[in-house]
Write a structure and sequence with these properties.
mainly alpha; 16 helices; Transcription Elongation Factor S-II, Chain A; 4 strands; 2 domains
């Protein structure tokens, strides 16, 4: 096994290189040592504020991390919890972005960017990215607003730290691809292990279960509504998913769009589309909007339906 390829896989365990190396290991059965390590790993990610990259020359440690990452994906799938998946993907993305900041080989950065579907070039240590890729992946921070960037010929020019921060969002989405793994595709030993050893998080209650909104809104999602959908998206679902559930905007848009499609089966008369939902999610996130109160929701949604869910 080429040490350079293993190093790339260790830095970016979601990469095709990492998948190829793991496939070459020809794993025949569940490794309970790495399964246990994976549980501890995910527990750490759920409770830690930062997950940083640690350089090592040890091939043993690199292979060990790849296997731990593999089993971590299985376990967060067995949990079947979108919050756990989001935290896992976010922490691993931060680690890989941290690695990018120390990456000395610009060809590897370009190689990773191509795998992420980004058009990145480098010239004299200054990176450039297509305008469209930049707008899709930039952090929602003032320093990344377009007015603060150098633009020329349809490209945005960036320093190394900036390109790492932007690629972090693309990495997060890459990691979340295929998660959760279907329960029928998980080894039964993994599912049983998780049931006996579930994750423990000290921060979940504060970040997800805050307020009294979670219960009735989750039940609302089971019932299609015939009208008032614009206001439900604006005042309930968008702030709930991005500010209570702490989902990424893309994930929030997907969840809301699925609900609207369910509503269309009951009454197809609506002009709500994905673009509208995305605008409302971004607006709720920027403003830090709180979810509509239950009292106001009764007035908005109607007492008959609310009596079933709250």
């Amino acid at each position: 096994m080429d040490s350079d390829e293993l190093d790339f896989a260790y830095r970016y365990p979601f990469s095709e290189e990492a998948k190829s190396i793991i496939k070459g290991m020809s794993l025949q059965k569940v490794d309970h040592v790495h399964l246990t390590q994976a549980r501890e790993h995910v527990n750490t990610l759920l409770n830690a504020r930062n997950h940083t990259f640690t350089y090592t020359e040890s091939n043993y440690i690199k292979k060990d991390y790849l296997l731990t990452y593999l089993y971590s994906r299985m376990l967060v799938s067995a949990a079947y919890d979108i919050w756990v998946i989001g935290k896992f993907a976010g922490a691993e993305a931060k680690r890989s972005a941290d690695s990018l900041r120390t990456e000395t080989d610009v060809l590897k950065i370009r190689r990773l960017s191509l795998e992420l579907g980004l058009k990145v070039s480098v010239d004299n240590a200054l990176f450039s990215m297509d305008f469209i890729d930049y707008t899709k992946n930039r952090p929602d921070l003032k320093e990344f607003y377009l007015v603060n960037q150098k633009l020329e010929g349809g490209k945005v020019f960036l320093e190394r730290n900036e390109i790492a921060s932007i690629m972090e969002n693309a990495i997060r989405r890459k990691i979340k691809e295929g998660l959760p793994i279907g329960k029928n595709d998980l080894p039964p030993e993994v599912v049983s292990f998780y049931k006996e050893n579930p994750f423990v998080s000290r921060v979940r209650k504060a970040s997800v279960d805050s307020g009294k909104s979670r219960g009735w809104i989750e039940r609302l999602l089971e019932y299609p509504i015939l009208d008032g959908r614009h206001r439900v998206v604006n005042l309930v679902l968008a702030p709930y998913f991005v500010n209570v559930r702490k989902l990424e905007v893309d994930d929030a848009v997907k969840r809301i769009n699925e609900y609207i499609e369910k509503c269309k089966k009951a009454n197809p008369d609506t002009r709500i589309n994905e673009q509208y939902i995305r605008y409302q999610c971004n607006y709720a996130k920027r403003r830090g909007m709180r979810v509509l109160s239950l009292k106001r929701a009764r007035e908005l949604i109607g007492e008959e339906l609310m009596s079933k869910i709250a």
